[in-house]
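User: Structure with 4-(N,N-dimethylamino)cinnamoyl-COA, tokens only please.
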Amino acid sequence: MVQYSNLNYVIKDSIGYVIINREPQLNALNQETLDELQDIFMHFNADDHVRGIILTGAGLKAFAAGADIKEFLDLSVIQARWLSERGHIIFSDLIEGSPKPVIAAINGYALGGGLEMALACHIRIASDNAKMGLPEVSLGLIPGYGGTQRLPKLIGKGQAMQMILTGDMIDAQRAYELGLVNEVIAQDKLIARAEEILHKIFTRSRVAVANAITAINAAEDKQQNGNKVEMDAFGHLFGTEDFKEGVSAFLAKRTPNFE
Ligand code: DAK
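Assistant:
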């Protein structure tokens, strides 16, 4: 298997773990880390041994404290625009667009590009010490990896405006109240809870789960007609073995045994 400089990964019990491993820099996302994220998500998305993915940061302090500020200064306008587009591709196509459920286990600071990475995941759970924010305006920037688009959809335009325009950090409890994270968990139980959620999902039909992700994502995509995507996916599922098995199992009062 490939060795990465900035990521650890492992596959265990059908879960692919991706751990950003730049603890001394609070797991800040430099360009090399983004390259490696692209690579591992392409790999996990295509690997049948992986049924779901947990994305987290190394250590007890940070999920990812943003894009790596030390790399900003030398970027030209054209490079910055291009890097933003590239980040969008990784976060939108490979993380949000993964056919497998991706859980962000936010184990500390999730700031700037780090929070944007969590926003691209399908489910977010946070440890009780987590702090989240989009502080880009304090650096003379705006979020560049989808934050201005995903945050308002998740927590509403007014709350997103306040977070982005003030750049203030919020704690895990406030993030839960806003709907930014689904659950707040003690730090030492965070990964176990993410695993529990995935193992519940693994008892369901894999093809149905993948189609549900596609249809839910389509709801937010202005280029697509979400209702049509849902209808097509719904029709398609009627032709699958999993559908036959799911209905037969229900009628026979037994647990389904999906492909
Ligand atoms: N980048 C680089 N290094 C970082 C970092 C970051 N984002 N965050 C922390 N570090 C480093 C610190 O420099 C320090 O390194 P040393 O001095 O030890 O060498 C080490 O991590 C520990 O940090 P602190 O000593 O500051 O730790 P504290 O506990 O005191 O404070 C903190 C923790 C998270 C409050 C603080 O580190 C902090 O405010 N960090 C910066 C947070 C931030 O502003 N993040 C960036 C947001 S802006 C783009 C697309 C997207 C973006 C940019 C460009 N393009 C397409 C081009 C996104 C931008 C952002 O993410």
